[in-house]
Write a structure and sequence with these properties.
Helix content: over 70%
Largest sheet: none
Number of strands: 0
Shape: elongated
Low-confidence stretches: 1-63, 599-603
Number of helices: 30
Structural class: mainly alpha
Strand content: under 5%
Order of helices and strands: HHHHHHHHHHHHHHHHHHHHHHHHHHHHHH
Distance between the termini: 79 Å
Length: 607
């Protein structure tokens, strides 16, 4: 157990205790008993101003007066504690307990304040007084057990008080937990298990009771360095089963039970519970993530897929199952992708998309599924046209969702609908700015917007957007710096700024082949073919795969240096990698003719 921390007490928390005092004080108001003898009747009204003593039926008995004073002290204590004046709060509370020591909740609070001051004897006296006044309340026994175990190191007394608390209130899991903690701290795990076994015999419909009891079993039986024994697993399963049975539609309890089954690799039992949680809370991303992560960590993707497909056969109307199956398959596909098994990965990604699409047929109002599918179509599946159709539909359904508009702009850009994409980016920007707290408009947003503007031929707009991207995240701006520099170099404009930007990119990633190619290209544009060739050859050597753009640039540099055969060789390598490049094919044809017919002409095929 942890020592209670200092904290201010909410007025609402103590309201009911104050109300109890108020009721007690009110009950002590004396009422004049009826007399058995007839009293003389008065014909006139009594003038109370002539009497110093109040009317009998308005007088407080002595006990009631004390109760009223106690209430005043209690309210004062609350106020002092709210203001952090703990000593004064403690003094006021003690005055209350002098009147009514049986107020167990207040006694426990006073004891906690005394513990914070290391005044254990006084704390014990307060709790024992509470027990004398109210011997059937378990709370003071629990706190005494805590003090004796934690601070006085008197295990026998602690166990005695904890046992008394459990006897008084066998349906309160707190008592068992206190007793277990004491036994475990004393190195008596076997006795701690006996306490838990005792708790299993309680007849309780409280799901939280069984949930916490199950966690206590897990804490003792399940060791991190070994799997639980079959009998221990069976024993614990019964507890969690009761928690689930009594949970009804409580998603918190159901998720905790599912977590237990997933952690103990009982996925068959975990999956239906997670699905039930998702039925109750369809947007619970945590439940989805835990289920998918559980499958991955236990390396049982195949088994998970089999179970989910079986559930789909039995309940084809549940969209959550399709989503979960898509997540598991997506993880498998990305694993294949990392292993360079491209064709196998693409086939699995197609299945992922099919499951997301089926989910949307059943529930077209789940924005997250649209975004997952869109990312898939724009990424691994490279189907931008389909992505545009999907996101256009999503935009129609979800007005005021800037993320949807942003994804649509990216999809339009990938589908070569660049003019429309620029307009959609601008709409996404406006919507995000209207949505307070939306952090979508970041460095990456401006990079994507800038790249699209460049593809649409809006070079100055592209430059402005790329500079915004760089300014927002300079430490991670290499891609934006290179893009801006290469854009200027490719259009033979602003070459000094282009070179500066590309060098900034290389400072961040000095061995990036694309950035080295950009540096070589800007040097070529600035009339430095020797330097250009050196950096371009380095780029080709550094690249993890043959790049047609790099080979074409190498050919251009060789041509500038009048090394025509080497230029042709590089261009032909580039054409083999990019056979649809008609400009490159024409360049080769124009250069071949002069070589075959004598000295080369002054025609530059790279222009």
């Amino acid at each position: 157990m942890r020592r209670p921390k200092k904290r201010s007490v909410s007025l609402r928390r103590w309201f009911f205790i104050a109300f109890a005092f108020l009721i007690s004080a009110s009950a002590a108001v004396a009422r004049t008993p009826k007399s058995s003898s007839a009293a003389p009747k008065k014909t006139g009204r009594q003038d109370d101003s002539l009497y110093a003593k109040p009317a009998a039926d308005l007088a407080l008995r002595s006990e009631g007066a004390h109760k009223a004073d106690a209430l005043i002290h209690f309210v004062e204590g609350m106020s002092f504690e709210e203001n952090g004046e703990m000593d004064r709060a403690l003094e006021a509370y003690r005055k209350v307990l002098n009147v009514d020591p049986g107020q167990s909740q207040l006694a426990s609070r006073v004891a906690a304040l005394l513990i914070e001051q290391d005044d254990f004897p006084q704390a014990i006296d307060v709790l024992k007084d509470a027990i004398k006044a109210n011997p059937k309340d378990a709370d003071p026994y629990q706190q005494l057990a805590f003090i004796y175990a934690k601070y006085l190191k008197k295990t026998d007394q602690a166990i005695d008080y904890a046992n008394r608390a459990v006897t008084l209130n066998p349906g309160d899991i707190e008592g068992y937990q206190r007793l277990v903690e004491i036994e475990v701290a004393a190195g008596q795990e076997k006795k701690a298990l006996e306490v838990l076994d005792r708790a299993t015999k309680v007849r309780s419909n409280d799901a939280n009771f069984w949930m916490r009891l199950g966690k206590l079993y897990v804490a003792i039986l399940f060791k991190s360095d070994s799997q639980p024994k079959p009998d221990e697993l069976k024993r614990t399963n019964e507890i969690f089963k009761k928690a689930a049975e009594h949970a009804g539609d409580d998603p918190a309890i159901l998720k905790d039970v599912a977590d237990y089954y997933a952690a103990s690799q009982q996925l068959k039992d975990a999956i239906p519970l997670y699905l039930h949680v998702l039925e109750l809370q369809p947007d619970d991303a945590n439940a989805r993530e835990k289920l998918a992560t559980g499958f991955i960590l236990t390396n049982q993707r195949g088994k998970a897929v089999e179970m989910l497909e079986q559930i789909i056969k039995e309940h084809p109307e549940k969209y959550q199952t399709y989503d979960l199956l898509a997540q598991v398959l997506d993880d498998e596909a990305r694993s294949l992708q990392r292993a360079k098994r491209v064709d196998e990965a693409k086939a699995i990604f197609a299945k992922v998309a099919a499951n997301y699409e089926q989910s949307l047929l059943i529930n077209p109002n789940h924005v997250g599924t649209y975004l997952h599918l869109a990312e898939l179509l724009l990424g691994p599946l490279k189907d931008a046209d389909r992505g545009v159709r999907l996101l256009t539909e999503a935009r129609r359904r979800f007005t005021g969702a800037p993320e949807i508009v942003y994804y649509l702009a990216i999809a339009q850009s990938e589908a070569k609908q660049t003019q429309q994409a620029v307009a959609t980016f601008e709409e996404a920007l406006r919507e995000a700015q209207l949505d307070q707290g939306n952090d979508m408009v970041n460095a990456k947003f401006y990079f994507n917007y800038g790249a699209t503007a460049e593809q649409a031929g809006l070079y100055q707009k592209a430059a402005d957007l790329l500079r915004k991207s760089i300014a927002l995240d300079p430490a991670n701006s290499a891609e934006a710096c290179n893009y801006l520099g290469y854009m200027w170099a490719d259009h033979n404009m602003n070459l000094d700024e282009a070179e500066t930007m590309i060098n900034r990119a290389l400072e961040i990633e000095p061995n990036n082949a694309s950035y080295l190619d950009s540096l070589g290209w800007v040097e070529y544009r600035k009339g430095k073919p020797d330097q250009a060739l050196s950096n371009l050859l380095r780029a080709a050597k550094t690249a993890d795969h043959d790049d047609p753009v790099i080979f074409e640039h190498i050919g251009d540099a060789y041509f500038k240096l009048n090394r025509l055969s080497e230029a042709l060789e590089s261009w032909q390598k580039a054409l083999a990698l990019d056979p649809k490049n008609k400009n490159l094919a024409n360049k080769i044809e124009r250069t071949k003719a002069p070589i075959g017919n004598g000295p080369p002409t002054k025609t530059n095929p790279t222009q």
